[in-house]
Amino acid sequence: MAPDTVSLRYFLVLAQELNFTRAAARIGIAQPALSARMRRLEAELGTALLVRNTRSVVLTTAGAALAESAPPALAALDRAWDAARSASAGELGTLRLGYSLSTGAETAPALVDRLIRDNSGLEVGAVPMATPEITPAVADGRIDAGITRGEQPGRGVRRFLLRRARVGVQLAQHHPLAEHPEIEIADAAAYPLRLPDRAANPVIHDQLSALFRDTRPHPRFHTPAVSFDMSQRDLRDGVTLAPAGEAAVTAQPAGLTWRPLRGAPSLTIQLVLPREQSPLHRRIRAVAKTLAHELHWLPD
User: Fold this and answer.
1) 295 in helix, strand or coil?
2) Are residues 272 and 152 in contact, defined by beta-carbon separation less than 8 angstroms?
3) Are residues 155 and 175 in the same domain?
C-alpha cells in the first residue's frame, strides 16, 4: 500500500532540512507529531528512511531514493487532482457547439472565444447548422450546446436568453428611408420586403412577417432563390428592404445600412442546453451569462 501523501510531503521537507525542529516549524506542526508521522511512514514502507541522533538527521539509502523519486510522482498526482477538479467544474473536456448562420457573425464567435480563453483545458468545436436542427441535436446529445435566433420549439432542452436585439431593416445607403434614424413600420411596408425562406427559421420568419400584419396595403414579401444570398443585389439597388435584427450591422456588405423600426419588438438569441446538465453545461451557462452582461447583450 502506498503511504499517504501528507506524510510523504512532510518527509520531503525533512529531507531538505535534515533537522526535525526546522522541518516541523516550516510545516507548521509540533516536532513530536512530525516524528510520529515519520515512524509511521517507515513502518508502512517496511524500511528505515532516516538515521537519527541528537544533533542531526541523515537519510538512509532508501530515504535518499525516496527523496529523489517522490517529487515527480507527487507533481503528477497534483496534476491528476487538478484535472479532476477542472473536469468537475466543466473546465476540461470537449465541447460541441452548434450555431445558426445568423448568429455566426458575432454572437457565436464571441462565446467560443471566451470559452477557450477562460478554460485552457476545454476543446471547443463549433459548427454551423440549420436552425431547426439545433434543438433536436442538443436534446439527443449529438452536440453539447446550441445558439439559435428565436426560441425554437423542441423537448428535452433548456433555453436561456443570451441576447436581445432591436429589429430594423437593411436597405441601400442611397434609399430615401436611410435618411431617417428610425423607420416607421408602415413606411417600410410600402416597399417589397425581402425575407429568407421560412424553412430556414420558421420562428424568426413568422415574427418578422407579423410586424407588418396590420399595415395597409398588405406588404409584398419577396423570398430570394438562395437563402443567405451574399450578393443582395435587390437591396443594394434599392428595390427591396430586408427586415433584420441589429446584428446584421456586424456583417453588412458594402452599400447597405441598417435602421431600426420604431416600436418593433426585439428579436432574441437563445443558448440551448440539455435538460439534464453536466458540469460542462453549467460552465457554458456561467460563461455565457457573464459575457452577455459584459457586452450588454441584455439591456434593461
Assistant:
1) coil
2) yes
3) no
Q: Report the candidate in 103, 158, 159 with the shortest Cα–Cα distance to residue 127.
A: 103
CATH number of the domain that residue 239 is part of? 3.40.190.10
Quick: pLDDT tens for 50-98.
998 767 789 999 888 888 888 888 777 766 666 556 555 555 478 899 9
Q: How far is CA 57 from CA 11, 37, 60, 185, in A?
A: 12, 15, 10, 88
3-state SS, residue 264: coil
Is 125 found in the same domain as 177?
no
Residue 185 included in any domain: yes
* Neighbour count for residue 73 (Cβ, 10 Å): 13
* Kind and range of the H or E run holding 55: none
Tens of pLDDT, residue by residue over 228-237, are: 555 577 788 8
Kindly report the backbone phi and psi dihedral angles of residue 218, in degrees, each rounded to the nearest multiple of 5, phi listed first: -60, 140
Are residue 116 and residue 234 in the same domain, yes or no? no
The H-or-E segment that residue 231 falls in is none
The count of structural domains within the chain is 3
Q: How many helices (H) and strands (E) does the chain have?
A: 10, 12
Structural domain of 175: 167-265
Q: Between 5-17 and 20-27, two packed helices, what is the crossing angle to 10 degrees?
A: 130
Place of cell 417589397: 192
